[in-house]
Design a protein that fits this description.
By secondary structure, the protein is an alpha/beta fold. The chain contains 25 helices and 27 strands. The protein binds adenosine-5'-diphosphate (ADP) and magnesium ion (MG).
Length: 756
């Protein structure tokens, strides 16, 4: 057996299991070993059914019988139920929306069941039978005979902890456990080499790879499990940072244009803004200007809450670049390359969506109109150029730009006649060639990766300066880890005069009045609508955000169906706001349709825009001052914060109503953080603490595993890993003296590419 062997070489896999494994990206022995338990159960904590009381959350072992599938009487929700028996008593278990359970577990099977004990109301009105509602259930091979006995071992020294692996349909935790034990028994651990050097492990008191693998899958006690997780988290954070440090060094090797315009011209440009720059904007601009002079390419992240004014920073620094002459072929007396006395350097400004790109095009026209230079837009659906020779009219609006062909645009970009090109990803296609690209701004892109950056590099090796802008607040430890190759500037202050947004929680039920912890009143739906109406009467506009586009997909299983854009827009129009103009916006609409809706909303002819979270990034309509978010508990706090940022674009008082579908204390508490937090960073930290790993961050969003995500709360650990990565990157840049680290690094790179 070898780590890189596929599982199929050693185990016979049923087709359902094979499918489940491939769904979660497990193919090799190694993949399975690195599939860590999400948590551990303790058989010592199991209970006898006879002792269960209403309200308990209990772990029981027993046999299951009478498993069957049914449909809810009124709700028509697919259900499954069965009876668990452990010799001391019996209890019914009911599952909503998981009818497949009945087919997965054979009658009479031994199971481990964990869940909340509820009580039915008896027909007579009194208290009825106890039951478990939606418990976790898993087939097991043995039942611990007495409290304290191990599920998987026997004898007095047996451990009571057992691993619980992340749930996936068709793949039981038990199955994974047994396969991992079989792999351990093969002796493979003896052959495993630890990529982390011994002295590093000693410094931070971390177990070796071999020990850590055993401890994470079969800990003797909680300390072992914790030590193993710490090691894997350290290892992951270390390797991410090492990679970033190497990227950073590679990035800085190539030359970049020196951008050093006259301060006076810069001041004049800024003085035309209809507002003074905030101190934070000035500081960030200065950071960038300092980088521009260094001779190697900048790689900087500009992080700032929604509405903090990142565009103005981008515009000011863009002005600096286009005010710099390109280098000529001639050298001066000192042998340095001279600058041309014509033309200008070029700037590329990339946005994630067409709506945003078009919006930046419009605002850049305003910023640069007086300079007389050209600004162009390139997206998948067409190209535009400002200024137009003859102004035209479209949708009844005067247009100072004109549509041009792609070929024409490419020509002008290639010969340097267009200094500023704004666009979507279309901007980094091969066919787009710049003459003197000196500066690239990337908006709302969490991470503009190495591969994408490489596309911006010129043939002669000159690299553009790179500014990544994001409104996604992330905790500092996470930023250190995943943005280790970037310098960071933060816009931590809002423009002067902005009133804090008033955020209120709205609950569906009419009968119950809940209070926030700090006493602020929680509203009901109708009350929120009245407040929105009051704003609309003042001439303001509103967003309503729904979690989904279409009607429920009947094949999907979800207990509570979230509101959909289409249905909700119709309902609001018919029943709630018949006197106002309502329209919709979502990602599946055609581009020109999206643009029409945005234009009409901007112009004010649409009063209420019902949308999915597509409006989350960057959309700017200052007159919209209210946002109502349906199904708010489905979003992370940081994301809710971004959504509400849509309405803090002016000095009008703004309102945000967050509507919870459920009224649980936990939901209300979590949403309350929104009403009190000072900024997005605070909320991101809160998310990290309370939503736990996996859900919000984790692999999908940041390319960081759940184990590392968990550990990232520990700033000391993150800094230690960073220290080690920095040291190694400078002491042994090629990693020639650390072959094990080099090969582990490339293994991780490959795995990540596979995952992406
Ligand atoms: P974001 O950081 O979310 O991209 P924008 O750049 O879109 O924010 O700016 C939001 C709004 O604030 C815009 O209408 C912009 O003109 C305005 N703005 C930017 N800077 C300032 C400032 N210093 N004072 C007042 N308003 C500003
Ligand atoms: Mg923006």
């Amino acid at each position: 057996m070898n780590l890189s062997h596929s599982l199929e070489e050693h185990f016979r896999l049923q087709s359902t299991i094979r499918a489940a494994l491939s769904r979660i990206g497990i193919r090799t022995i190694e993949d399975l070993l690195y599939h860590f338990p999400g948590r551990y159960g303790d058989t010592a904590e199991s209970r006898n059914i006879a002792t269960l009381r209403k309200g308990d959350t209990a772990l029981i072992f027993g046999s299951v019988s009478k498993l069957r599938t049914s449909k809810g009487f009124r709700t028509k929700i697919a259900m499954a139920d069965g009876v668990i028996d452990d010799g001391t008593g019996k209890i019914k278990a009911i599952w909503f929306n998981q009818p497949y359970l009945a087919k997965m577990i054979p009658d009479g099977a031994l199971v481990r069941v964990e869940g909340k004990v509820s009580q039915k109301r008896a027909k007579t009105g009194g208290e009825g039978d106890l039951y478990l509602s939606n418990p976790k259930i898993e087939q097991v091979t043995e039942i611990p005979t007495a409290v304290g006995d191990s599920l998987f071992g026997s004898g007095s020294d047996a451990h009571t902890l057992y691993p619980i692996y992340p749930e996936t349909r068709g793949l039981s935790s038990e199955w994974i456990y047994h396969k991992i034990q079989a792999i351990f028994k093969s002796g493979i651990l003896e052959a495993i080499e630890d990529p982390l050097p011994e002295d590093m492990l000693k410094r931070y008191n971390l177990p070796t790879l071999r020990t850590a693998l055993v401890w994470i899958h079969t800990p003797e006690n909680a300390d072992h499990a914790a030590a193993a997780r710490k090691r894997f988290a350290f290892e992951e954070v270390f390797f991410i940072q090492l990679e970033r440090q190497r990227e950073r060094k590679a990035w800085q090797k190539n030359p970049a244009f020196v951008i050093d315009p006259k301060q006076e011209a810069m001041d004049r440009f800024v003085s035309r803004f209809p507002f003074p720059l905030t101190d934070a904007q000035k500081k960030s601009t200065a950071d960038i200007m300092a980088d521009f002079k260094k001779g190697h390419a900048m790689a900087r992240l500009l992080e700032g809450d929604v509405g903090s004014g990142k565009t103005a920073v981008a515009a000011t620094t863009t002005f600096a670049a286009i005010n710099t002459r390109p280098l000529s072929d001639k050298k001066d007396a000192a042998g340095l390359q001279k600058r041309q006395d014509y033309g200008s350097l070029q700037v590329a400004y990339m946005a994630p969506t067409e709506i945003l790109a078009a919006q930046h095009f419009e605002s850049f026209i305003q910023y640069f109109e007086h300079t007389g230079i050209s600004v162009a837009l390139i997206t998948g659906s067409g190209c535009r150029k400002f200024p137009a020779k003859v102004p035209s009219f479209k949708n009844g609006e005067r247009q100072n730009w004109t549509d041009i062909s792609r070929a024409q645009l490419l020509k002008w970009v290639a010969n340097g006649e267009i200094p500023i090109l704004i666009g979507t990803h279309a901007l980094i296609q091969k066919s787009v060639k710049f003459k003197n690209l000196a500066y690239a701004v990337v908006d709302e892109q969490h991470r503009f990766g190495t591969a994408q950056r490489a596309k911006l590099v010129r043939k002669d090796g000159i690299q553009p300066h790179l500014l990544s802008m994001t409104a996604t607040p992330i905790p500092r430890t996470l930023a250190l880890t995943i943005y280790g190759d970037l310098d960071i500037s933060i816009l931590d202050a809002m423009p002067h005069g902005r009133k804090p947004i008033i955020t209120q929680i709205v609950v569906p039920a009419k009968s119950v009045k809940v209070k926030n912890k700090d006493g602020a009143e929680v509203l009901e739906r109708e009350e929120a609508y009245e407040k929105i109406r009051a704003q609309l009467r003042e001439g303001r506009q509103a967003y309503v955000i729904c979690p989904r586009i279409d009607e429920p997909d009947p094949t999907k299983e979800s207990a509570v169906q979230a509101k959909s854009v289409k249905e909700e827009a119709k309902r609001l129009q018919d029943k709630v706001f018949p006197e106002y103009e309502i329209d919709i916006l979502h990602s599946k609409m055609k581009d020109d349709e999206k643009e029409r809706v945005m234009l009409e909303f901007k112009r004010g002819s649409i009063h209420i825009l019902v949308a999915t979270s597509v409006v989350e990034v960057g959309v700017n309509v200052p007159n919209a001052t209210v946002i109502l978010i349906e199904g708010a508990e489905r979003f992370g706090l940081a994301q809710l914060h971004q959504l509400r940022g849509r309405v803090v674009r002016s000095n009008h008082q703004a309102y945000c109503f967050v509507l919870a579908e459920t009224q649980s204390e936990k939901t209300i508490d979590r949403l309350t953080a929104l009403t009190t937090a000072k900024n997005g960073f605070e909320l991101a930290e809160f998310d990290l603490k309370f939503r736990g790993s996996g859900e919000l961050y984790g692999r999908k969003q940041w390319g960081v595993s759940d184990v590392a995500m968990e550990a990232i709360q520990n700033i000391k650990m993150v800094e230690a890993a960073r220290t080690e990565a920095l040291r190694l990157a400078s002491e042994d840049e090629s990693l020639a003296r650390h072959p094990l680290i080099a090969s582990e690094l490339s293994r991780r790179e490959k795995q990540r590419i596979h995952f992406e």
